[in-house]
Structures are given as C-alpha cells and as structure tokens.
From TrEMBL:
It is a multi-pass membrane protein. It is found in: Membrane. This is DMT family transporter. Pfam families: EamA (PF00892). It comes from Vreelandella alkaliphila.
Length: 291
C-alpha cells in the first residue's frame, strides 16, 4: 500500500471520529455541565497522550523543553477553546454549533492578516462573504431579515470558539515542539487549571455510567485518537490537499448522526447555511491547492 493511500485511510479514520463529535457532545452535556465534561475529557486525553509520549520515547524531551510555550498555549487549548465550544453546544442544537464551528479556517485566514502580516486575496474575501452569509442564515434560523436570534449567546460562544481555535494555530505557527509532545504539555498545563475551576465552581458529581462513557469517548477519540490519525495522515501524504479535503465529508455525517441518535430535527436553515459555509471553505481550499 503506497503512502498516499495509507494517509487517506488515516484521514478517513480521523474524519469518521470527528463526525461523531457533535453527537457525543450533546449526549454528554445532557448529563453534565460543560466544565465537568471538559475536565473529564481533558483528563482522559492527557492520560492517553502520556502513554503515547512514553511509548515513543519522548518523555525526557517533553519534561525538559517547551514549557514556556505550553504555559500560554495550554490556557488557550484545551482550557479556553473547549470551555467556550462546550458552552455553545450546551445552548445550541448540535447541528448549529457544529456548522458555525466550521468557519474557523476562514477566521484563521482573516486573523493571519494582522498577526502574520499576510494579505487577503480577492478569493479570500469572496470565500469569507459566502461562508459568513451561511453563518447568518444559521444564526437567524432562516429569518435573514430578522435580527431576533433564538439564542444569541450560544451563537456568540460558537463564533468565539472559531476565533480562539484560529488564533491558537496562528500563534503556534512557529512552535518547534513535536505535535504530540506539544499537545501533552498543553494539556498538562490546562488540566490543573480546569481542576481548580471545577473545585471552586460546580464540582464534579456522579451522573451514571452513560455520562462517564460519553465523557471518556470525547476525551479519547475527539481529543486523542482523531488527533493522532490526522497527524499521521498529514505527515504521510505527498500533498496536503489530498487529505485536507476529506474534512468536507464530516458535516453531512454529523447531521445524520444528530438526527438518528439525538433526534434533532434537521432545520432547512442549517442545511442552507452549511452549504454556504462549505462552499466558502471549498473556494479557499481551491485557491490553496493552486498556490
């Protein structure tokens, strides 16, 4: 099996897991608060990555170097990003939070202008206008001329999560740490902060085995296994666009799972808005592949 075929299989595995994320979030948040879910998922993910760091022989490197970067990066991811993202999922239907979160790539293109000194192309502007028109359709639930949002705070949380995620990757553009080591160090910083927030806040209550299973699933697969599979796909493939385009398979599968598992009715506004967002992302991808 050639490397590109292996990379595509790894990429499909990551996308398949990410497609279950919106459903897993909604299931878990039906039992526990966003902070409880965040703490449990971060703990599971931190332990999983620790095992991988040790197995790959990177523990000495992870303990000695890179903590200055991890000190601030860990506050962004996992703490700030996932807390805001889970808050959005807690307030919005999963389909809306998921669709709005997909605009992070466009947010990154916009933020790269002031942060990295890059310039916006005409295609960037067009792609952004199309995608954020989709955001407006979703946020207003199809009443595009009516500014009466169903849950404005939930929409704000979802959009802030995209800004945090884009900002995190832009600020880490020059990060010299190995991806797995960086992720484990970030979670090593974030987990104590989340523990403190949980102690002084709602505390952690036992919500049953189903709640525990949902939280473990989020930590192990969304934050752990999917990250490793995607990392392997990007490293093995001859051209990044061959795997990056696979991410477009995730939203339709996510919507189907939300409908089948969580019994969320599919809103026409979500479908239209998601099509606009994916069209904007596709234009941006097309431009990147030609660059």
């Amino acid at each position: 099996m050639n490397q590109d075929r292996q990379a595509i299989l790894y990429g499909l595995g990551a996308v398949a897991l990410w497609s279950t994320v919106a459903t897993a979030f909604k299931v878990a948040l039906a039992w526990m608060s966003p902070l409880e879910l965040m703490w449990l998922a971060a703990l599971v993910s931190w332990a999983f990555m620790f095992v991988l760091v040790v197995k790959q022989g990177h523990l000495t490197e992870a303990l000695r170097y890179g903590w200055r970067t991890a000190a601030w990066a860990g506050l962004m991811n996992p703490v700030a990003y996932y807390l805001v993202l889970f808050a959005a999922y807690d307030r919005l239907p999963g389909q809306e939070a998921m669709a709005l979160n997909y605009t992070w790539a466009l947010a990154m293109a916009l933020l790269a202008v002031p942060i990295l000194g890059q310039r916006l192309t005409r295609m960037d502007v067009v792609a952004g206008l199309i995608a954020y028109a989709g955001v407006w359709v979703i946020a207003t639930r199809g009443n595009v001329f009516n500014v009466d949002f169903a849950d404005p705070l939930g929409v704000v949380f979802a959009l802030v999560s995209t800004l945090l995620w884009a900002l995190y990757w832009l600020l880490n553009a020059r990060d010299q740490r190995a991806p797995l080591v960086a992720q484990w160090q970030n979670f090593s910083v974030g987990l104590p902060v989340l523990t403190l927030l949980l102690i002084v806040g709602p505390g952690f209550s036992w919500h049953g085995w189903q709640a525990l299973g949902a939280g473990v699933y989020v930590g192990l697969f969304e934050m752990g296994v999917a990250f490793i599979l995607w990392q392997m796909a990007v490293r093995k493939v001859s051209r990044t666009a061959k795997v990056s385009n696979l991410i477009f398979l995730s939203p339709p599968v996510s919507l189907l799972l939300l409908y089948l598992v969580v019994n969320e009715p599919l809103l026409a506004s979500t479908l239209v808005g998601l099509m606009l967002i994916l069209s904007g992302l596709a234009l941006q991808q097309l431009q990147s592949s030609k660059a």
